Amino acid sequence: MPDALLELRGVETRIGRYHILHGVDFDVRRGRVTMLLGRNGAGKTTTLRTIMGLWRASAGSIEFDGRRIEALGTPDIARLGIAYVPETMGIFSQLTVRENLLLATGRAGFTDERLDRLFALFPALKEKWAVAAGVLSGGQKQMLAIGRAIIEPRRLLVVDEPTKGLAPAVIQLLIDAILRLKESETTILLVEQNFHMAASVGDEVAVMDDGRIVHTGSMADLAKDEALQHRLLGLSLAVHQ
Amino acid sequence: MRHRWDDVAPHLVLPAIVLLALPVMGLSNWVVLTVAGLAMGAMLFLMAAGLTLIFGLMDVLNFAHGAFITLGAYVGIGVLGPLAGWTSADSWTLNLAAFGIAVVVAMAVSGAVGYGFERIIIRGVYGAPLRQVLVTVGGLIVAQQLFVVLWGPNAIPLIKPTAFRGSILLGSAAIEKYRLIALALGLIVFVALHLMLNRTRVGLLVRAGVENREMVEALGYRIRRLFIGVFVLGTALAGIGGVTWALYQELVTPQIGGDMTILVFIILIIGGLGSVGGSLVGAMLVGLTANYVGFLAPTVSLGSNILLMVLVLLWRPRGLFPVAKG
Questions:
Q1: Which residues does residue A191 pair with via DSSP β-bridges, in sequence order?
Q2: Chain A closest CA to B98's CA: distance in Å?
Q3: Nearest CA distance, B217 vs chain A (angstrom)
Q4: CA-based angle B175:B181:B184, to the nearest 5?
Q5: Does domain A4-91+158-240 have CATH number 3.40.50.300?
Q6: Contact call for B215 and A92, based on CB within 8 A
């Protein structure tokens, strides 16, 4: 696909004795939000961690903007402009909100323009600027995790289940934030169990099962086709809808 | 309210012990023993701070840390011997200059050897705790034998500079000058470490790396380089601790650092593994407890630090100031 920013072809990942990914193929197109959906244990988080080099692909290729990255170390992958928000959020709880964000900036530190943009998306971060991140609420931590990923311009945002365990009001705030990021044509790969969020923000979708991609297409088409949802995602979909 | 008390209580332990000791030993004894305890704590902190940084960031239990303390002590002999003209002069300036040079050279040599140790020995055992214990204990044994080969098995005297000897009178309490110098050096190193950790980007990375190394890498930082830097810093600090402790003891043996290993680990456990502030408080507590108990109940003084550690762990199983790990 010519406008793909990220391409995975036949990616396999083994963790110890376990063979988790069995040949994952999908693309993430520039300026689009690609949803990676699937049941628990399908291999979504492993796929994101493999993209980031946190687990090494044992076979297959991962290309980012035409460059093979599957053999690179995590810092080198991040330096290509890929920001990662893990399922655990990866917040440094003993550092302040400011310090967490500062780590994600270049040597020049913060610019007013980026801070204004960040605070427009997540006003709570301005209020909690000097507070230790460990005392933030779950929703505020998630805002900080996403804020840290976008405080500098990135070429690809990789986010793992941002709505997990959050209240509906906070989920709506995150949906609004991702929709605003979409307007700026940020390319996003998003793993999500919350189908409402997936349907609200997703352009493309790749569905995983048992370490493989079993469906790719338009998110809008999947949202409209309940039978397909049931076949691909099973009962877990009903729980989250 | 409960949460707030849990945060505040560890900070009150040190002042509480100091104040509780006052009524039971009289003012003069209390002043002498408190300064002695704090000075001993400062020297222990110099030896423990590096190890807590290394463990906190790298999850490496370096049982060979004592070898770097010993190395610092022998470097002290190597530097202060040729500077005998300065150390024997009745001049604060020359004495302090000689001491300062010994500290800087001990730091540099211990740090340089630490760099080699990390590249050759530690590099291959990241993430393998059992192998870390084996290779670092082995490293300590080999180093002690090397010290015997290089400097002989017997204790070598190391005389304090002239101006560092004797005491000053504070009311009726006589306070050894060297204890005050050691206390000042310990506090200077603590403030420097505190500023480095809290006011610089490298310090920010170290604190972040202690919590969650993986996320630091995902933000684009090469944490292995940070590991090397912290290991060098940790071993350099052990070098300062070694030269300071050797001047306090006025004798250097091949076991001077190895003998401190247990005490250093007790300090780390009391303070909370990975916490520099915790290691300062832990070292001060150990120093004060040893001095107070030695005065009040000499028969139990040998076990006082173990007892202190047990009491702290019963109250806070992860130490007084534990560092959250991601």
A1: A36, A160
A2: 39
A3: 5
A4: 110
A5: yes
A6: yes
**pTM, full prediction:** 0.84
Sorted by where each begins, the domain ranges of chain B are 9-315
Q: Is pLDDT of A23 > 90?
A: yes
**Structure confidence at residue B68 (pLDDT):** 97
Q: Which residue of B has its CA nearest to A84?
A: B218
- Residues belonging to chain A: 241
Provide the residue ranges of all domains of chain A, joining segments of one domain with +: 4-91+158-240
Alpha-carbon distance of B58 to B61, in angstroms, equals: 9
Task: Quote the minimal CA–CA distance from A41 to chain B in Å.
Answer: 22
Q: Which residues contact A111 (CB under 8 A, 6 or more apart)?
A: none
**Beta-carbon separation of B218 and A54 below 8 A:** yes
Cβ neighbours for A1, distance < 8 A, ≥ 6 positions apart: A7, A27, A29
- Smallest Cβ–Cβ distance between B204 and the set A54, A99, A107 belongs to A99
| pLDDT above 60 (res A47) | yes
Pick the closest to residue A173 from A98, A239, A237, A120 (CA basis).
Answer: A120
B324 to A94: CB separation less than 8 angstroms, yes or no: yes
Report the gap between the CA of B246 and the closest CA in chain A (Å).
36
Q: Are B83 and B159 contacting, i.e. CB atoms less than 8 angstroms apart? A: no
Helices vs. strands in chain A: H and E counts, helices first = 11, 10
pLDDT at A229: 86
pLDDT of residue B325: 66
How far, CA to CA in Å, does A122 sit from each of A59, A128, A158, A170, B304?
40, 11, 19, 11, 52
Yes or no, beta carbons of B218 and A74 under 8 Å apart: yes
Mutate: best of A80, A94, A136, partner B, most B CBs <10 A: A94
pLDDT in tens, B32-41: 999 999 999 9
Quote the pLDDT of residue A188. Answer: 96
- Predicted local confidence at residue A235, as pLDDT: 52
The verdict on a CB contact (< 8 Å) between B204 and A78 is no
pLDDT tens, position by position, B78-93: 999 999 999 999 999 9
Question: Quick one: average pLDDT of A59-70?
Answer: 96
Q: What is the pLDDT of residue A237?
A: 45
- Asked if A55 and A86 count as a contact pair (C-beta separation under 8 A), the reply is no
**Which of A84, A99, A107 has its CB closest to that of B218?**
A84
Q: Determine whether the interchain pair B324/A86 forms a contact, defined as Cβ–Cβ distance below 8 Å.
A: no
